[in-house]
Design a protein that fits this description.
This protein has 534 residues and is mainly α. Helix content is 48%, strand content 2%. The strands form two sheets. It has a two-stranded antiparallel sheet with strand order 1-3. The radius of gyration is 23 Å and the shape is globular. The relative contact order is 0.14.
């Protein structure tokens, strides 16, 4: 079955299965989620909980691991600067040096529709039909969390027109601006649906479906508000009025934002090992990225040892050293002894309270109402990140006004010096840690985003998006560019290209989507709507 058919026909079949699972006496059940008994829920709503769980597990797909590797790791995790592979995949001509491989980049697109939009479409439709406001709200929040990531990779996406056939038998895309406006509308609706339940225990259905907070309405409201603020700041360059309106609404909501480590949006994956542990340890396919060793090492950041392990290669043994993106690699053995990632627990981190504080810091820097003090938010963000890793008082680190990112030297480069980033290189930041009230707006923004980048690890998709939006933290350009002129080395990769399967099954809609891009070219160097060329 081709992908277009899956979106149109496959979902109809799934919807029939979902709705057909209800017992004949469903109408006798109280529509308020608190009015349904456990027995009722087990008989009628188990499939809805399962669909919501599937979506949570697939935003960052941890099983099967090869799918995750393509969906996330060999895309955002590397483009963010957090990681780099020691493996010269495809003869060392691949995503990592800007030859965007369709078989790799398409995974982020296809997984999102098959594993997230499909179950959420069904769960949302069922929840509307049966008046289950809390389940509907969860489906809307998850849809935004999942699909803004897809839009931030590709630009236009199928969102408001999902499962709606056009006259050609295909499915139309939303331009990225339209998708973002729909994200805000969905979040507003979800927050309104959940607000009456704030402070109450979650219904049996909601608690069963919730793999993050165990059924806490209040924490889901905090997450929705923080997500709204994240997306508001994402569009601040291209649509500042809308950004301010949405951001201030998030800041003003009485439920608040994520504020401490217990609020982190971590999806529980049970006894399953984190996919990065497999890719890092069993496959030896991923290692620390050079920008991470430069930034964390230069700052003497105690989170360095929480994130990565010392190198084992004889030339760099005991050091924390990463691999630079887009370099000449002849064999895995050359760099496999560089710093591994530290072991991850069995949970998928999608948003942290530390990020929320840095979002507030930027909002305050921009003068948005309700954001408070940029300096206080910035410092609280750092301390909250330290708390996440049990690192104690961050005061000494916060007040350090001398440490800066360190130059990078690669002693194992095939061509000596080719991969080095020396002192004075424009790609090497000189920003310090301590807040400077007299600094320019741009310097303060760099300080905030650099610390946010550190705190968001290992969530590379979001870090890559923020790098494209702000230019921070400063990352190192590729040494080898195999894009054939489609991606500028100095401008970095800006997006992924649409899957070939979409061209084969939905070509007219794809061409219309491309016409909404900034230069109407489906290439990796094309800037997204929220990322205007400066």
């Amino acid at each position: 079955m081709n992908y277009k058919t899956f979106k149109i026909a496959g979902l109809a079949v799934a919807a029939v299965l979902s709705f057909g699972s209800c017992t004949k006496n469903f109408e006798s059940i109280n529509k308020n989620p608190y009015g349904s008994t456990d027995q009722d829920l087990q008989a009628d709503f188990a499939i809805v909980a399962a669909q919501l769980q599937q979506a949570q597990r697939s935003i960052y797909l941890y099983q099967p691991v090869p799918s995750f590797q393509l969906q996330q790791n060999l895309l955002g995790d590397v483009f963010s600067g957090y990681m780099m592979s020691a493996t010269p995949f495809a003869g060392n001509s691949n995503n990592l040096n800007y030859n965007l491989l369709d078989g790799w980049t398409s995974s982020s697109f296809t997984i999102a529709y098959a594993n997230v939009m499909n179950p959420l479409y069904n769960a949302g439709a069922f929840s509307k039909q049966k008046n289950l406001p809390d389940a509907l709200a969860m489906s809307e929040i998850l849809r935004v969390e999942a699909m803004h990531r897809v839009s931030d990779i590709f630009g236009p996406i199928i969102y408001t027109k999902y499962n709606v056939a056009n006259t050609e038998g295909g499915v139309d895309f939303d331009a990225q601006k339209d998708a973002y406006y729909a994200f805000f509308a969905d979040l507003k609706d979800a927050i309104a649906l959940l607000t009456p339940y704030a402070g109450k225990p979650g219904s049996t259905l909601f608690a069963k479906a919730d793999l993050v907070y165990g059924g806490s309405y209040t924490k889901w409201l905090k997450f929705a508000n923080t997500l709204r603020l994240r997306l508001a700041l994402r569009i601040v360059k291209i649509d500042p009025a809308k950004a301010k309106t949405e951001g201030e609404a998030a800041l003003a909501d009485p439920a608040g934002l994520l504020s401490d480590v217990s609020d982190n949006f971590n999806v529980n994956i049970g006894s399953t090992t984190h996919p990065l542990n497999t890719i890092n340890n069993s496959w030896d396919d991923i290692r620390m990225g050079a920008p991470a060793s430069s930034i964390l090492g230069g700052y003497k950041d105690p989170r360095l040892a929480a994130y990565y392990l010392p190198a084992t290669d004889a030339k760099v043994a005991g050091q924390y050293i990463g691999i630079r993106n887009g370099i000449d690699i002849d064999a895995k053995e050359r760099y496999v002894g560089y710093s591994k990632l530290a072991t991850f627990p069995s949970q998928i981190q999608l948003m942290t309270a530390a990020e929320a504080w840095f979002l507030k810091a930027e909002a305050a820097l921009r003068g948005w109402a309700g954001a408070g003090s940029a300096q206080t938010n910035y410092q609280t963000g750092i301390q909250t990140s330290f708390n996440q890793y049990g690192l104690g008082d961050a005061t000494s680190y916060i007040n350090n006004s001398t440490n800066t990112p360190a130059p990078y030297t690669d002693p194992k480069a095939i061509t000596a010096g080719a991969n080095d980033v020396k002192a004075g290189d424009p790609h090497l930041s000189t920003v310090t840690i301590k807040w400077d009230a007299a600094a320019s707006f741009e310097r303060s923004l760099e300080r905030i985003i650099t610390q946010k980048w550190i705190a968001m690890y290992p969530e590379g998709e979001e870090a890559w998006s923020e790098f494209r939006r702000t230019g921070y933290p400063k990352l190192f350009p590729v040494v080898i560019n195999n894009s054939g002129g489609k991606i500028s080395t100095e401008d970095f990769v800006r997006r992924a290209t649409f899957p070939s399967n979409e061209y084969q099954t939905n070509e007219a809609a794809v061409q219309r989507a491309i016409s909404t891009l900034s230069v109407q070219k489906d290439v990796g160097g094309t800037h997204l709507w929220w990322d205007p060329v400066q």
